[in-house]
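new request in #modeling-help
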Amino acid sequence: MKTAVLITIGDEILSGNTVDTNSNFIATQLKEIGIKVLSIFTIPDEESAIIATLKKAFGMADVVFTTGGLGPTKDDITKKAYADFFEDEMVFSDEVYEHLRTYLEKRNRLWILDHNRDQAMVLSKAKIFLNFYGTAPCMILEKNGVYCFSLPGVPYEVKPLVKDQIIPFLKEKLALDSIVTRIVSVVDIPESILSETIEEWELALPKHISLSYLPIGSRVKLRLTGTGKSRTILEKELDSEIQKLIPLIGENIIATHEDKIEKILGELLIGKKLTISVAESCTGGELAHLITSVAGSSAYFLGGIVTYATQKKIDILNVNPRTVEDFTVVSEQVATEMATGCQSLFKTDIAVSTTGVAGPGRGEDGKDVGTVFYTVRIEGGEVTSKLFLPHLERLDFMNFVSQKILQDIVSLLIKKNKSPQLY
Amino acid sequence: MKTAVLITIGDEILSGNTVDTNSNFIATQLKEIGIKVLSIFTIPDEESAIIATLKKAFGMADVVFTTGGLGPTKDDITKKAYADFFEDEMVFSDEVYEHLRTYLEKRNRLWILDHNRDQAMVLSKAKIFLNFYGTAPCMILEKNGVYCFSLPGVPYEVKPLVKDQIIPFLKEKLALDSIVTRIVSVVDIPESILSETIEEWELALPKHISLSYLPIGSRVKLRLTGTGKSRTILEKELDSEIQKLIPLIGENIIATHEDKIEKILGELLIGKKLTISVAESCTGGELAHLITSVAGSSAYFLGGIVTYATQKKIDILNVNPRTVEDFTVVSEQVATEMATGCQSLFKTDIAVSTTGVAGPGRGEDGKDVGTVFYTVRIEGGEVTSKLFLPHLERLDFMNFVSQKILQDIVSLLIKKNKSPQLY
């Protein structure tokens, strides 16, 4: 199996200013063509660190990626390190310069061409992939049979370079194994019990199929990864392993193909021809955002409202002011009325509401930080639940609650199928 | 200056299944107490890789963190590696077991205590920080004056352990330098021109103050980092450097204290006592989510609506069906009417709207993927703008557009101050 090492060059990552999302994207892309990432090294913008890490990476893997360290104000150090490591020199590339000119011209920025001129300097031995969404090109270098790709650091420049140019290049150059992954989503069972329940099954897995446990929120994802020559055979093998798993924990499985809860829900809704809308308070738009992050969600998501101020819950969602007075705004009763109001406003089969305190300050009605009530209305029936998550920071709280709600809707829809009187 | 190395243990990171956010959090926390992260190594769940990386890290830094590799199904490998590296053995800790019992009891999960019993096995020399939000404790080990912290992988368990226990511990144990950071946000000037314009200023910076360029969307953040004994002196020095910068690029500066655009906007709105609401289509809730990600945003954010389906724009925001027919739903005209409808619905000083095509499929009216119109209404005036971002993937598109809109509102509010007739 072919292997890769990713090197992230960037003081901004080490200082905590930026989250490195490039490595995740590149790892996902490489996995799909059967290349396994062995390590990710994040290092400072320093010539000696870059050279030392390139050396180490070249001793470990078949493919090396560097991201970052390129750009009009950073080029020098990284390119010097490259020149040193590859025992090469920088030359001016007419092709890159011409591309840069066209790129800037299209964006009415031709006046900065002279200031970006150095970005056309590349190693003499490098093959070049032009960057259609930024000014720094990608250099491809080879040494002792190992390929190295130097990428810029901006994620929306990295993505098309990897997807459209590097992946096809690697597919052509390397004789690659196939990797097939399947994720089984399991709910309502703790990781430790789960691992005991399926231990025998796990031990009997063939050697080329590996299993990982990925706990996320209140769900555990079981990831099966198979490696081999034929994608078709691997797919069949994984299918048959999952079939053996179902008698053991079938009740707890909510999906065997899709990974993300928002996609699992989307497929269910399309299959059942149901529409959905949301009325949010403490999740502040995250729930709508999670649902609309799925391409094609306009087929079932008609809309959402964030009634952040209490008065807006009353004015727009018809929450009764008496209910707020009697039970406070963070209450089961208000959640229920919000869901009803949401369903009338958007006229959807399913309507969801949230009301709670994301923190760090207490809510206006004095409820504890981390408290949330949410209602899921499916056609005429409804379920209201409470969560108390005082340990989560504001953004994690919003995300956890939103994920949990989608998970609940999925569970309800699946169970409803089996016993329609459930709620 | 004290230094740290972070080790992320996890096949799920290397396979691209999970984004590593722990390193970012830990780096930010360490920076605040003057500890610099030298490198982040992400490695597989393998004993030999863990031992080799611990060795390397102990040769580089004063403090070492590992995250991940702990948990009921993973403990074995990581703890074995620790025992080997620290030449120690595992012992059963009554304190950890008792804590585990209480933790599970509170959550009505006492029945799984036996299955999690091994989590009470710790190195004999380790000091322990109890984990109040999960089952794996944090071990603290010392070797040759270097401190090592082994943390679980779940972000909401890592955060409180680091913030409440490890940071106070490090502050007490190490004689730390102060680090002070200031971020200057600059708009409407390309990075290459910016660097030329401020070159002389940059070269004249004292040696203990460093500068980085962090481009984000259509903004460049200049980060000044000062290191020294006295926080008060450093703060004054950074202030005075920023004062020298203002005559050079004052027109382009939108903030000198805050880093995040949603916080910059929040402070402005509180200062000016203005309220805001949003009506979203293609951003799908991301704009509301970005605004409400700020603690205290309920002071100015009254609400938002996601009118994803065209009919909802007509029904709820009073968009004229004729306008949709004449100009299509992704148009300047619909954006304008949505903003007007939003302002009437929520009765806010500022109302914002978005309508566009996030992709990957074309919009129903055939507009190109990546097209968006957005309107910012401030009291009676309004500005409608268009962006075309065909290179961005769905989620990046939603985020870029939302960031850009907040940036525009900030620019408008700042300029409005200087010349009220601007729009």
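bot summary: Residues 418-423 of chain B have pLDDT under 50 and may be disordered.
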